[in-house]
Fold this protein.
Amino acid sequence: MPSHFHRNLNRMALFTALVAVVVMLFWRDFMAIAVSNIYLNGIIIGTALFGIGACFVDIFRLLPEYKWLRRLARGERENALPPRLLRPVAIILQNHNAQLSTHTLQGFLDMILLRFDEQRESVRYVTNTLIFLGLLGTFWGLILTVGGFAELIGNLNFEDESVLTAMQAGLSQPLFGMTTAFTSSLLGLAGSLVVGFLGLQVQLAQNAIFRELEETLADRTRVVDADNAAQLNAATQNLGRAMRRLDKTISQLT
């Protein structure tokens, strides 16, 4: 099980190092792109760095969950609980030593999937924000370009002999708009690519936890006959309500 964690972590580290090497090799070009519109591009770069940090924080938070799950798979019993994601499952397993039913197993797995989805929301939001900022810069640059050309043409006097000089001097505003459009799109898409790849590795690590948990709990699951289906359904509903209250209480405490 730890091999899955280290494999995904190594991929994240190597990919981040590769991106850093590319940025250092093309440092002058990168700085020229960044300072073309320092405010918008600075926000995009800062958002990308925040997303990269959030991905590494998320995968390091999975390490205690891995360790606890491996101890559970080996049959070791201890009073220590995992930090957050698997805590409700650990609490219920400590209080109920008997075998689980298939409905209870499904409830466990649904609850863990919901917690995994909640953990990935921040990375998804950062990825979508980077794409939005890139598009925002694109439209902003197009507005500056169109407005600059309109202003340039409106101020030109074609009867003046120096019209070419005036046109050359007036092209700075449209060119600045085009630079803003292209650089912000480039940084936004590149940042979303980097954060998206790192977020994918976090998701793969979560899937490894989920598969291990599913296999571990399957060993403790028993199949009930149809005669006990009604009683089991009522018990499952009560357990579901209790698990939701427990999850809410744990969220408040943490």
